[in-house]
Write a structure and sequence with these properties.
Blueprint: E1 2-8, E2 17-20, H1 22-28, E3 35-37, H2 38-45, H3 47-56, E4 61-62, E5 72-76, H4 79-82
Parallel strand pairs: 1-5, 3-5
Antiparallel strand pairs: 1-2, 2-4
Amino acid sequence: MKNIQLIDGAENAAYNIYAMPDEDFDLMFPNGQDIEFVEDFFKRLGSKRAGEIYHACWPRRVVKSEVQGIHGTLFVGLKKQKKKHYPTKRFSDDGASEF
């Protein structure tokens, strides 16, 4: 299992973390990327398969104090605002760790 953090644009966003099977993680974050935008994910996999993976996360929320690593970040509804900061969709490649 891998952990993903979901970040959306809501003012009261909780930035929850969800456990995801490795196979689903690899579909959401292909080619070693650790950043994804939900719009790109749905476009790449199609509505049906992406929806199955996306909605399967909700019952697997992880208590933040018990998290042992975050393996990926999924931005929801923030593509316009955030995509320019993550052109390679890899946190470490984009200088984001220098913020």
